[in-house]
Amino acid sequence: xxxxxxxxxxxxxxxxxxxxxxxxxxxxxxxxxxxxxxxxxxxxxxxxxxxxxxxxxxxxxxxxxxxxxxxxxxxxxxxxxxxxxxxxxxxxxxxxxxxxxxxxxxxxxxxxxxxxxxxxxxxxxxxxxxxxxxxxxxxxxxxxxxxxxxxxxxxxxxxxxxxxxxxxxxxxxxxxxxxxxxxxxxxxxxxxxxxxxxxxxxxxxxxxxxxxxxxxxxxxxxxxxxxxxxxxxxxxxxxxxxxxxxxxxxxxxxxxxxxxxxxxxxxxxxxxxxx
Length: 275
What we know:
ten-stranded antiparallel beta sheet, Multidrug-efflux Transporter Regulator, Chain: A, Domain 2, three-stranded antiparallel beta sheet, 3 domains
């Protein structure tokens, strides 16, 4: 048998990492001395340790590696490999986009240290009274598409005719990606206000003056559009009279790159009264 020190030398893993693998039930020592707590590994475990290293190089997480090590299903393993290839390929494409953007900053001699802020055209208009199917959810922000699809399904099951694209109001005072407080809204052709179930309802949104702009690109930088609207509202003598909302004109459902996403941001406003 090998001591943990010798075993770590052979597989080029730190003793600390081996202890972590033991804790995660991934690679447990063959023997632990009950008196002094020394850990010992068998010769055959070296192959397992080296396999773990290789799977980590392939970007598999420890839970994924545990599944692979405990399975003899080659079809499942090939499927996991293909999924990982797709994941790494998408990451590579994203990195190419980032490199191209960085090179463009250099070529255009942009003031990189102070960042690049997009300019937004702000429009003022009227949103007429409209009926919507609505659901308030507490979700991981990454799951929002799933809940929008679910609301579409509820409308279809209840013969509710949809009129336009979905919108979202972020209700919480503090944004927490893993537990976001969001109201999802989809305009419908008509409907009286009623509580259909504990999950969703139909309600009317009142007529409002709205200041709007379009954000083109990833949702990660949509904050720039909100800031532009806030500044416009303040500088043009308006007050916000309702929560801002985002309408997803073009998003993940279009199977296009994030740079082509189109989101409309709307601020319900009212003109400040003169004192």
